[in-house]
């Protein structure tokens, strides 16, 4: 399929590294990417024709992969296969690999991230890792180190977005869509960083987008916070992250507050020594604590 010709026919179409579940667009698999075409520009016949002649991604996402429940959970609004636990999505953009290299990379990732429950390569340069929560889950810094080592082994260059852990009960299609948008935003905006997460990406993103309409942000608020946690975040923000000052503000022993913070950070993979993480929490409680 000639992408240039399609873009001439549909001038509003644009290229992305990943497919979309946005109902306003039809994403067509190309050789190394996906072409997003506004649905309003297409007749039903055109949609069927484009889907029929698009480059099949079966070289990378096999028919078996498409039958996997997690593929359906991410792209077809189906429930996740597990009925307990929490999961995060790690999106990976990489240089084009041949099929044999992708197979070897999959094995390496499953070894390094043993709690991986699904690994889908959706194109030659984009994949999604679904990881179950564990106390040994790697931090953003640790993930960066791991993928630097993999880049060296495979003579490649990868960039990744580490999502937050979400309960199995959540709508992962919508969560994936929103985290995908954050990743795409960072890939366009930031050409230097290798690893991104929700906290660092949300600050600038939600300057331009209404945070109150974000399912992702609402979901994080309901999963992360209860009355006491909200009070702790408010005090930490007021005291610019200083635990001793926040403890005095809360009339709480410093060690008790530190223990509660440590438990919260372990559960959420946040680090309040990073102001981005504290700001995200403050943004959530100010927006959704009604």
From TrEMBL:
Residue limits of the PucR C-terminal helix-turn-helix domain?
235-285
Pfam families from the UniProt entry:
HTH_30
Gene3D superfamilies according to UniProt? Homeodomain-like
Q: Which residues form a coiled coil?
A: none
Q: Which InterPro entries match?
A: CdaR-like_regulators (IPR051448), Homeodomain-like_sf (IPR009057), PucR_C-HTH_dom (IPR025736)
Protein name as annotated:
Fis family transcriptional regulator
- What's the source species for this entry? Tetragenococcus osmophilus
């Amino acid at each position: 399929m000639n992408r240039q010709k399609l873009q001439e026919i549909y001038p509003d179409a644009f290229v992305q590294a990943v497919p979309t579940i946005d109902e306003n667009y039809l994403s067509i698999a190309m050789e190394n990417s996906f072409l997003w075409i506004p649905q309003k520009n297409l007749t039903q016949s055109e949609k069927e024709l484009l889907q029929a002649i698009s480059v099949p991604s079966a070289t990378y996402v096999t028919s078996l992969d498409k039958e996997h429940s997690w593929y359906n959970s991410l792209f077809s609004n189906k429930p996740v296969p597990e009925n307990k636990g929490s999961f995060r999505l790690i999106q990976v953009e990489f240089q084009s690999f041949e099929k044999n290299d992708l197979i070897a990379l999959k094995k390496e990732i499953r070894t390094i991230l043993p709690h991986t429950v699904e690994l889908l390569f959706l194109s030659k340069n984009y994949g999604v890792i679904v990881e179950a929560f564990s106390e040994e889950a790697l931090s953003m810094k640790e993930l960066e180190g791991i993928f630097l080592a993999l880049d060296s082994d495979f003579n490649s260059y990868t960039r990744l977005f580490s999502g937050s852990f979400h309960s199995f009960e959540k709508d992962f299609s919508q969560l994936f869509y929103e985290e995908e948008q954050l990743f795409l935003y960072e890939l366009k905006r930031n050409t230097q960083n290798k690893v991104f997460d929700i906290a660092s990406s949300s600050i600038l993103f939600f300057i331009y987008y209404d945070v109150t309409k974000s399912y992702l942000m609402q979901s994080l608020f309901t999963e992360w916070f209860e009355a006491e946690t909200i009070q702790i975040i408010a005090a930490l923000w007021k005291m610019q992250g200083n635990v001793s000052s926040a403890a005095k503000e809360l009339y709480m022993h410093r060690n008790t507050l530190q223990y509660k913070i440590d438990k919260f950070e372990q559960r959420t993979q946040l680090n309040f020594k990073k102001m981005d993480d504290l700001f995200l929490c403050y943004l959530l409680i100010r927006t959704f604590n009604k």
